[in-house]
Design a protein that fits this description.
CATH superfamily: NAD(P)-binding Rossmann-like Domain
Shape: globular
CATH architecture: 3-Layer(aba) Sandwich
Mean pLDDT: 97
Strand order of the largest sheet: 3-2-1-4-5-6-7
Bound molecules: NADP nicotinamide-adenine-dinucleotide phosphate
Number of strands: 7
Order of helices and strands: EHEHEHEHEHEHHHE
Largest sheet: 7 strands, parallel
Number of domains: 1
Helix content: 40-55%
Structural class: alpha/beta
Number of helices: 8
């Protein structure tokens, strides 16, 4: 059984992946900012997940996280870089440098820093999965240029790390279509509006996080040893329409 570090494990896709892995007997170290949801992750996983509070927008917090992991002598079998923000939406003509920074600080720079700090802790055959999105890969909503650009950059970083590590550590990106999570609800202006918009998906609805969590488990574990340096779209056919 392995030990996996998951950022954004307190909600949505990250939480579902954490529970998927712990149900299979793995240990999870789950990162987020919300202590209450962190505690609930620990209890829902029967203590197989440990929550560590860390604001990924703060380099000091990331440094503190990794000094704790080092002190505890943690070795990792995988990393799911999942946490992200879409910031404040706006037209590409108007998005400010500040808006770009807010999104890139978490979605790209923190992901890069966490990856760099995690590499020395990796056990042989470790795997990194980066949560990109169809946004930034095959679909480009006009109000989310900063978010899309950050996700495109995540894909480039994924492939670059994969190339550099020559298979000693595998790196793949997942590009999900719409998933029913608090982030999507916020983006669409509420859960009801999100659900209404998803009736146009030819499945009639988005995926629940539990439906896509096994894909991440597959990429994080030895079931997928020959998949490396890929950006894999998982969207139920959404981008066909
Ligand atoms: N939902 C979709 O339709 C969709 C589609 C494609 C890709 N994605 C990607 O999937 C990932 C997860 O999104 P989700 O939909 O599951 O969203 P979510 O339910 O809102 O979860 C986001 C997670 O990220 C954490 N997080 C955000 N900012 C953080 C920060 N500064 N420091 C630490 N943790 C932070 C949150 O933790 P706290 O609240 O505890 O801080 C939370 O656990 C994101 O990368 C998103 O871009 C989502």
């Amino acid at each position: 059984m392995g030990t996996f570090l998951i950022t954004g494990a307190t909600s949505g896709i990250g939480r579902a992946v954490a529970l998927q892995l712990t149900a299979k007997g793995h240990r999870v170290i789950g990162i987020g900012r919300d202590e209450t949801r962190g505690t609930s992750l620990e209890s829902d996983s029967n203590g197989q997940a440990t929550f560590i509070r860390c604001d990924l927008a703060s380099t000091e917090d990331i440094d503190h996280l990794f000094s704790q992991l080092k002190e505890q002598g943690v070795t990792l079998n995988g990393l799911f870089n999942n946490a992200a923000t879409f910031g404040r939406p706006g037209t590409p003509e108007r998005l400010t440098h500040e808006s770009y920074n807010e999104v890139f600080d978490v979605n790209l720079y923190a992901l890069n820093t966490v990856t760099q700090r995690a590499i020395p802790l990796f056990d042989q055959g470790a795997s990194v999965v980066n949560n990109a999105a169809i946004v930034g890969h095959v679909k480009f909503p006009p109000m989310l240029a900063h978010y899309a650009a950050s996700k495109a950059a995540v894909i480039a970083l994924t492939k670059t790390f994969a190339h550099r590590m020559k298979g000693k550590v595998r790196f793949n990106a997942v590009c999900f279509g719409p998933i029913d999570t608090p982030l999507s609800h916020k983006l669409y202006g509420g859960e009801a509006k999100f659900k209404e918009a998803m009736t146009h998906h030819f499945r009639g609805h988005a995926a629940h996080p539990e439906e896509v969590a096994p894909v991440v488990e597959f990429l994080l574990t030895d079931a997928s040893t020959y998949i490396n340096g890929q950006a894999i779209t998982v969207d139920g056919g959404y981008t066909l329409s």
